[in-house]
Amino acid sequence: MLSGPSGVGKGTVVAEVRRRHPEVWVSVSVTTRAARPGEVDGEHYWFVDDEYFDWLIANDGLLEWAEYAGNRYGTPVAPVEEQLASGAPALLEIELQGARQVRSRAPEAQLVFLAPPSWAELVSRLAGRGTEHPDVQERRLALAQAELDASGEFDVVVVNDDVARAADELVGLLTAPPPAGR
Ligand code: 5GP
């Protein structure tokens, strides 16, 4: 499972995994946020309304879920269970609160933290995202700092210095046997 601070490029690394390693199964999350241009329903996310999201929660349909920046995101549990039952790995890209839920529900899951090459790099990536108000940028940076502080909770840290390299390292971890004692 891949997590890490906002702006570190989790989505980009997972997109690169899909491109370079189409054999790797990647979970498709449900979200209540609107699709961005170019995003395809059922491919990047399942785009659902609040009512359906509530229904999924009430019916234990989600492995984990979290609210992030005003929208809800969750991992449908059935496809992940099916995938793991087949003996093959599953890749989940989720934010920190969700990662903690997976940790408590599935202690054997491998948690990978994607880290920026440096704090300065993360600041410039967050700022470079565009037209956000300086207040919003400040809040995102404070959140990113808290998220970076959580890296110690993870099994492995992958540094996103190069997207292709980080994607390969992640896939190597997915397919490697689990470390002894886990
Ligand atoms: P975005 O709106 O930029 O696609 O995603 C916002 C955040 O939600 C990212 O940090 C992403 O990793 C996280 N996210 C995407 N899917 C899930 C999910 O199923 N569960 C959780 N907890 N977070 C998710």
Verbal overview:
The protein is an alpha/beta fold and 182 residues long. The protein has helices at residues 10-20, 50-58, 77-85, 96-105, 119-128, 134-149, 163-175; strands at 2-3, 25-26, 29-31, 45-47, 62-68, 71-76, 90-91, 112-115, 156-159. The chain has a 4-stranded mixed beta sheet. The structure holds guanosine-5'-monophosphate. The site of guanosine-5'-monophosphate has 17 residues, from helix 1, strand 5, strand 6 and helix 4. Guanosine-5'-monophosphate binds next to helix 1, strand 5, strand 6 and helix 4.
Concise structural overview:
The protein has 182 residues and is of the alpha/beta class. The protein is built from seven helices and nine strands, in the order βαβββαββαβαβααβα. The protein has one domain: Rossmann fold (3-Layer(aba) Sandwich).
